[in-house]
Specification:
Radius of gyration: 22 Å
Helix content: 25-40%
Order of helices and strands: EEEHEEEEEEEEEHHHH
Shape: elongated
Oligomer: single chain
Number of strands: 12
Mean pLDDT: 91
Low-confidence stretches: none
Length: about 190
């Protein structure tokens, strides 16, 4: 088995390099038909919880495998797979576009739920997954852990400095959330 660099595996995940089904054949016919195959996981891969990667599978680079998927065979690089059996759902670029479109709505929902529960807006440092929506007033320790994820802190920090955010500050973002809350409450 080969596992590349920057592979994120959430638990529990099963990665096989063999198949024990030959035990049934041995019992019935008395012969052992061994079954071992090399399984390859490329670089920059995320494997969701409960997934099973069957022996002989080859996952390319820059791949997302959905939770509870069963992967068999070749998985294209730069793609998202899910299901049982796992099938290609979209390219990584399509997934990025999808996440970009959903990010603002999800961030607003998070802020409004936080406000409902705690009777105040979340402090800026609680927005660790959404700070690319606004220019952070400073890089908080929690943001830094997100920036350091996948060991490309400097590249991400550089991207943040040139990225066109939707809001000029966290305060502007909260003002937008407040307007959305008024729209939802009508």
């Amino acid at each position: 088995m080969t596992i590349g660099n920057d592979v994120q595996i959430t638990g529990p995940v099963t990665i096989l390099t063999h198949d024990y089904s030959w035990s049934v054949l041995k019992k019935k016919y008395g012969i052992i038909y061994g079954n071992q195959r090399k399984t390859v996981i490329g670089n920059n891969v995320f494997i969701g919880g409960g997934a099973t990667i069957l022996g002989g599978s080859h996952l390319g680079d820059n791949v997302i495998i959905g939770a509870n998927s069963v992967v068999s065979g070749n998985v294209d690089s730069n793609s998202v797979y899910a299901g049982n059996p796992a099938r290609k759902l979209m390219t990584l670029e399509e997934y990025r576009d999808k996440r970009e479109k959903r990010q603002l709505k999800e961030a607003v929902e998070y802020v409004l739920e936080y406000k409902k529960r705690f009777k105040t807006y979340p402090p800026e440092e609680k927005m660790d997954e959404y700070f690319f929506l606004f220019k952070p007033s400073r890089i908080y320790t929690k943001y830094r852990s997100q920036l350091e994820l996948m060991e490309n802190y400097h590249e991400t920090l550089k991207k943040l400095s040139t990225y066109h955010t939707k809001f000029s500050s966290y305060k502007d973002f909260l003002n937008y959330c407040n307007k959305q809350e008024m729209v939802f409450s009508k």
